[in-house]
Design a protein that fits this description.
22 helices; alpha+beta; seven-stranded mixed beta sheet; 18 strands; 1017 residues; disordered C terminus
Length: 1017
């Protein structure tokens, strides 16, 4: 990267517009940026950093006090920097936020937001790339390969900071290196190992707890079972020395439980034999008593059978006769039913004979010829009735048809009237529709007007809210700025006090060295063992100790923290104010409220217009729908009128035809209804007479048939007379009693036969032959008691066998599960132990003798690179005497790996960096800064920096050392680099005539260009 031009306007201490041509300065390669303290030398470097990244470097990051207090009120602060990165040339212009004059508002100012512009020079001229503040910094930072912090360390080398770094403790040096080199990946690795270790620890502890619980459960279960079950006199447990491991205990438990199991099985086998013997004896007695009981049951049944068998035989005979009578009883019932039917039929025929003689003067015999005569007469009357009914139906249809003709004529007249009315309504509605269509019907336009009016009202309301917020924030921002300025003044006072203390302490360095001298010990400065004239303090002089410096530093830090809080509060309020100003615009709240009133009036007018148009459109839609309805109704009425006229003509023709037909059917008779009623009564009477005679003849024939069947079946059943039949029939209760006697006799005979054939009765008779009798109750009870006692003893012994077997099985299963659990847990526990060792090393514990974490180790490697790169510069500056070396020696229980030592080639010994003199410290710090810049550029992939600045520190060098440093800087600018030295040392002006001077006045600073060629503005 090479800087070509820089223009500064109303920035920092510069009240007007100042310009620096770095291309002109590059002709000499080395130039001096000088001026008195506070003139603005560092502000030039701030302007370059602000142009590239949009923020100030170092502790001034985030500061909004960028605009010069000396600048005219209406002059905008601005920085323009033209530079080349690689082979591309850019121009970046930035303006910070500032309070510009305003014609409105109480303070007469308004904040102008920050702006940026990035352009690139192309063959076609300057091309705009971006105007976004953040994007400009992102583009340039990515091209440079450095963030803002790295850029200020690589391009702008502040010596004071690197002197502190050179003398810092390992922890402070680690913080600085961590800011410069990204070790977040390694920190995440440390965190990941810590998380994984925590997870694996939980898993391992859980597995170990499960293993311990399993072992305890096995011990408890085995000991609980063995307690009180082992034979007396045997050892309960082996010696502790023999059972050295849990597995030995488990094997001992298995053997002892197995012994108990074997003893229990032997006892159970002995008791099982006894149980079998007593059980067999008890069952034999029970069986003997049972067979003798069966024999007694047979004898009792035989006695009962002999007593009731005669009555059962008599009952069987009576039941047989009753069954024969029941078989022919149905024929008797049929004969009785046929006689009753004949009586009813005879009565019905006698009634019809009376009607025939009275109604039709007809006599008829009750035989087949009389029936035929009645049937013929009935048929003739039915045919005559059918003809009369047909004529009557036509006569009724004629009345209905006449009514239909009259109704059709009325319908035709009604439809004609409806048609004329609908056509008149259609004509009237069309006239109304044409009138509405000629008026304004633009609903879309009215809706757009209404929407625009709503948006205008909402915009006015929103702007009023933003304007109220803006006015309130303006007051808060002003107060926050005043508070921030007061805090900055406190910081300046605290820093001045600290600087005074440090200056006084530095002036007392000789007194401190003198106080540390010991007789015969070498001096830390000259190395001499003799101390002829050590420095002496005044009697009333008080030495400034480190505690005072620390208290002052804490006051400075506290003031800076408060200042940072005030600045953050101020910046937050300013950002909110900027947003509110953009949203509210330039108008006041009163103006915005006037606009809101106008917008509301316009909104009401738009709503009224839209309502009127909507009403017209709705009414027009209704008219169109009514026109369609009335048109359809007219067409329907026309169609219905035509249909009705045609129907009238058709019905009139049908009526004429029907009148002619009726005239023919009447045949000169006046009333068809009377004629039909007379024929109807005669036809029904003849039909009833035919039915009555037919039923009488059929009843006579049926009675003859069933009486013949009854006589035949009764005699075949063995009953010659009706008296024999009636004597054989039994009553229901008597019949059931006889059946029960018969069934009881049969059941006894069957039971006796079954028992006589049974093995039990044969066995009992055999025992009686042998003289053996049935056992008594005492013998049975005694045998049962002996068998129950033997069974109880056996079951108790068997229970002990099962318990022992179950315990042994569960013991072996538990031991097996424990072995499997051990096998599964082994790799997990081993992996945890390996991970724990590795995690301890990564976080600086265990075997990590240097107590370095992984990220510290990476930083130590970077520090070693920095020391090597710095030595190349320090070797040239010190004439080959000094070289910087990375020190990773152990520091007791503290972290190691971030130490720095200086090797003095004159003595061949390493020296602590705190023992370097002021000039030596400057050379080492400058070399360290340059080396650090090279390493940062290498690791960040940054472009080659062709423009560098070295800030202060030359005043502490003697002439010879200054010559060596200048020679090193001359070597540094080889290859076309431009080196700017920032200093106010007078000797530097004599050595470097190519310079830029910053002049300080009470009205602001200005920049003056000096060179061998002349002087210019």
């Amino acid at each position: 990267m090479r800087i070509h031009h820089l223009r500064i306007q109303a920035f920092g201490p510069f009240a007007g517009s100042e310009h620096i041509d770095f291309d002109e300065l590059a002709d000499g390669g080395l130039f001096l940026l000088d001026g008195p303290t506070g003139a603005g030398k560092s502000s030039i470097l701030d302007a370059i950093c602000y142009a590239l990244y949009g923020t100030l470097p170092g502790s001034r990051t985030g500061s909004r006090q960028i605009r010069s207090d000396h600048a005219p009120a209406d002059l905008a602060p601005e920085v323009l920097c033209e530079l080349t990165i690689g082979d591309r040339r850019f121009e970046v212009t930035r303006s910070p936020a500032w309070m510009r004059p305003s014609k409105r508002g109480k303070n007469k100012t308004t904040e102008q937001k920050a702006s940026s512009l990035l352009r690139e020079f192309t063959p076609d001229g300057w091309k705009e790339l971006s105007t976004r503040n953040d994007e400009v910094g992102h583009v340039l930072g990515s091209l440079l390969g450095l963030d803002r912090e790295q850029f200020t360390k690589v391009v702008m080398l502040p010596q004071g900071g690197f002197a502190d770094f050179l003398r810092a403790k390992a922890k402070d040096r680690e913080d600085l290196l961590a800011n410069l080199f990204d070790t977040s990946d390694y920190a995440r690795i440390e965190e990941e190992f810590s998380l994984r270790l925590s997870e694996e620890r939980k898993k391992t502890e859980s597995l170990e707890a499960r293993l311990s619980a399993s072992e305890d459960a096995i011990h408890a279960e085995a000991r609980t079972f063995l307690a009180g079950r082992e034979p007396m006199g045997e050892p309960v447990e082996q010696e502790e020395a023999v059972l050295a491991s849990p597995d030995d205990y488990f094997a001992d438990y298995r053997a002892r439980i197995g012994q108990i199991h074997r003893l229990a099985e032997a006892e159970a086998q002995k008791l099982r034999t006894q149980r079998t013997r007593t059980g067999d004896h008890a069952r034999a007695l029970e069986e003997r008593r049972r067979v003798f009981a069966r024999l007694g049951e047979l004898q009792a049944l035989q006695s009962r059978y002999g007593q009731g068998h005669g009555a059962a035989v008599s009952a069987s005979s009576k039941l047989e006769k009753d069954a024969q009578a029941a078989a022919v009883r149905a024929y008797l019932a049929q004969a009785n039913s046929a006689r009753a039917a004949l009586q009813q039929s005879t009565f019905a025929w006698e009634q019809q004979q009376l009607w025939l003689s009275q109604a039709v003067s007809m006599a008829c015999e009750p035989d087949a010829s009389g029936l035929d005569r009645l049937r013929q007469e009935s048929t003739d009357v039915a045919e005559e009735l059918a003809i009369a009914k047909s004529a009557l139906a036509e006569e009724k249809r004629r009345v209905s048809l006449a009514k239909d003709v009259s109704k059709a004529e009325q319908d035709a007249a009604t439809h004609e009237k409806a048609r004329d009315q609908a056509e008149a309504e259609v004509a009237q509605l069309k006239t109304e529709r044409e009138k509405l269509e000629s008026e304004d019907l633009d609903q879309a336009g009215a809706g757009e007007n209404l929407q625009r009016a709503k948006e205008r009202q909402q915009l006015a309301e929103t702007q009023i809210a933003h304007a109220l917020t803006r006015d309130d924030l303006e007051k808060k921002v002003l107060a926050a700025r005043e508070h921030s300025i007061a805090q900055e003044l406190k910081i300046v006072d605290a820093e001045k006090s600290l600087l005074a203390l440090r200056t006084e302490q530095l002036g007392q360095s000789a007194l401190r060295l003198a106080a540390a001298l010991e007789e015969g010990q070498p001096c830390l400065v000259c190395g001499s063992a003799e101390h002829p004239a050590p420095a002496q303090a005044d009697a009333d002089a008080a030495l400034i100790d480190d505690k005072q410096i620390q208290i002052s530093e804490e006051l400075v830090a506290s003031a800076r923290a408060e200042g940072q809080k005030a600045a953050q509060a101020r910046d937050t309020l300013a950002a909110k104010l900027e947003t509110a100003q953009i949203s509210a615009g330039e108008q006041s709240v009163a103006q915005l409220r006037e606009e809101l009133g106008a917008a509301q009036s316009q909104l009401e007018l738009a709503r009224k217009q839209q309502a009127e148009i909507s009403a017209r459109v709705a009414k027009l839609d209704q008219l169109r729908a009514r026109i369609e309805q009335r048109t359809a109704r007219a067409a329907q009425a026309t169609l219905e009128h035509s249909t009705a006229r045609h129907n009238v003509q058709s019905l009139a023709a049908q009526l004429e035809q029907l009148d002619a037909k009726l005239e023919e059917l009447r045949a000169g008779k006046e009333s068809l209804s009377d004629q039909v009623r007379g024929l109807q009564g005669k036809s029904e009477g003849l039909a009833a007479s035919v039915q009555a005679l037919r039923q009488l003849l059929e009843a006579r024939q049926a009675l003859n048939e069933v009486e013949s069947a009854w006589d035949r079946e009764r005699k075949e059943a063995g009953f010659e007379t009706i008296g024999d039949f009636e004597a054989a029939v039994l009553e229901g209760e008597e019949r059931e009693r006889l059946k029960q006697l018969q069934r009881a006799d049969a059941d006894l005979a069957s039971a006796i036969a079954t028992l006589e054939k049974s093995e039990d009765c044969r066995a009992a008779r055999d025992l009686e032959v042998k003289g053996v009798q049935a056992p008594n109750d005492d013998e049975i009870l005694q045998s049962r008691a002996l068998a129950a006692d033997a069974e109880e003893q056996y079951e108790a012994a068997r229970e002990q066998v099962v318990l022992a077997a179950t315990c042994l099985e569960r013991h072996e299963e538990s031991v097996g599960q424990l072995q499997r659990l051990r096998a599964d847990a082994g790799p997990v526990i081993e992996a945890y132990r390996r991970l724990r060792g590795l995690a301890e090393v990564i976080r600086g514990g265990a075997e990590n003798l240097y107590k370095m974490t992984l990220s510290t180790y990476v930083l130590a490697a970077r520090l070693e690179e920095v020391a090597i790169a710095a030595t190349e510069r320090l070797d040239a500056m010190s004439g080959g005497r000094y070289s910087l070396h990375h020190d990773d020696s152990k520091q007791g229980n503290s972290k190691s790996g971030l130490g720095l030592r200086v090797l003095d080639s004159w003595t061949g010994k390493y020296r602590e960096t705190q023992t370097l003199s002021g000039g030596e410290t400057f050379m080492a710090s400058l070399a360290l800064a340059l080396g650090l810049a090279d390493v940062i550029s290498h690791h960040s992939g940054a472009v080659d920096m062709q423009t560098l600045f070295v800030d202060e520190g030359f005043g502490s060098l003697d002439a010879e050392t200054l010559e060596e440093v200048m020679q090193a800087l001359e070597n540094l600018r080889a290859g076309g680099r431009t080196i700017g030295l920032v200093s106010h040392v007078a000797e530097m002006k004599q050595r470097i005539t190519n310079r830029v001077s910053v002049l300080k006045t009470q009205h602001g600073s200005t920049i003056q260009r000096d060179s061998l060629l002349g002087t210019g503005q």
